Amino acid sequence: MIITPGANQLLVLQTGITIGHKAAIYNVIGVTSSMFIHAVISGLGISLIIMQSPALYNGIKLLGAGYIVYLGANSLVNAYRLHERKMVTSNGVANATEPVCESSSKSLTKGFTTNVLNIQTSFVFLSIFPQYMNQHNSVWAQSLFLTLVFILLLLLWYSVLIALISKARLYLLKPEIQKWIKAITGSLLVGFGMRMLFRH
């Protein structure tokens, strides 16, 4: 589940390539911290209420899908701006290394919001975690333990991903390549958002 491509991975991939590994790390911190929110609302039974209420379920799904589509659309706009920008050096090659900056809080918020509004994440706590729990021990303690294990595995996977991105980024800084990265990942994010919206 963790390594299956999704909106979170696309966000981290795009951020790591276009902005840098530090911003991608804050994306991951946002994603992992939102897991505790899912764990708490699941432990309180709120997730089950949401799943059984079409209005609440569709409302949260709409918010989550809308945010992912927004990120994708914003990426497509940036790709178009790169396409339109005509910065040419004396040798006729586009200025390739103009840095793109993003505050750590913004990067963290993107990761947090993308995952906390992802209704599919709730299924992890409602359908998978109970298979590894028993009635003889504290439900909260077991839920916390499984959440920490899940987060540890997630951090391990994203550490590998960010390390690979960091090594490859030096070869991907040309505006033409950045344009296509933003265009492709933006289109995929819009696609993931639309799939989330219409998925039952």
Automatic annotation (TrEMBL):
<dbReference type="GO" id="GO:0005886">
    <property type="term" value="C:plasma membrane"/>
</dbReference>
<dbReference type="Pfam" id="PF01810">
    <property type="entry name" value="LysE"/>
</dbReference>
<dbReference type="InterPro" id="IPR001123">
    <property type="entry name" value="LeuE-type"/>
</dbReference>
<dbReference type="GO" id="GO:0015171">
    <property type="term" value="F:amino acid transmembrane transporter activity"/>
</dbReference>
<feature type="transmembrane region" description="Helical">
    <location>
        <begin position="24"/>
        <end position="50"/>
    </location>
</feature>
<feature type="transmembrane region" description="Helical">
    <location>
        <begin position="144"/>
        <end position="168"/>
    </location>
</feature>
<feature type="transmembrane region" description="Helical">
    <location>
        <begin position="56"/>
        <end position="77"/>
    </location>
</feature>
<keyword id="KW-0472">Membrane</keyword>
<keyword id="KW-1133">Transmembrane helix</keyword>
<feature type="transmembrane region" description="Helical">
    <location>
        <begin position="180"/>
        <end position="198"/>
    </location>
</feature>
<keyword id="KW-0812">Transmembrane</keyword>
<keyword id="KW-1003">Cell membrane</keyword>
<protein>
    <recommendedName>
        <fullName>Lysine transporter LysE</fullName>
    </recommendedName>
</protein>
